[in-house]
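Hi U.,

Before I forget, here's the chain from the pilot set. I'm dumping it here mostly so it's searchable later in email.
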Amino acid sequence: CESIQQITRDIMFGPKLVIGAVHGYAVGGGFEWLLNCDLVIAADDLVAFFPEMALGHFVTGGVTHLLPQLVGHQRAMELMVLGERHDANALQRLGIVNRVVPAAELLPRALDMARQVAQRSLFATSQLKRVITSQVNGQLAAALELERQAAMACFASADTAQRVGAFADRP
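Structure:
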């Protein structure tokens, strides 16, 4: 669990902007890391959801702090508790991804965006990221620790073992 949380810290508190180019399925941790990126380009085949609650697990990656800020309390609860699948266009409407492109254009478009970012002042963009993330650093650090504790409690739960076993036994 701690190594998953460390990836969030690396993405969010590193000095460079992180552009997520996401396609296929972003499920659980993949969806969490998508939320950690500074900019996100999604292929039109993207499907993202949180299965954790149905399995008796717990979200990590700072999602309990980041997602309510991004989409509001009720929508964040809906995304985390119900675990419904959302396509790239729905995620864009929610403000979770910046752009949706055809899957075949994902990498070229992400590289174009990266070139645009690279033309900006490295110093200024690193300062921007530092200032923005410093405003959430303490709250995010607290959320990461609380998520770690909750995830470990869920992993130790008999309910989780039963739910994961039932899921694994499905045809």
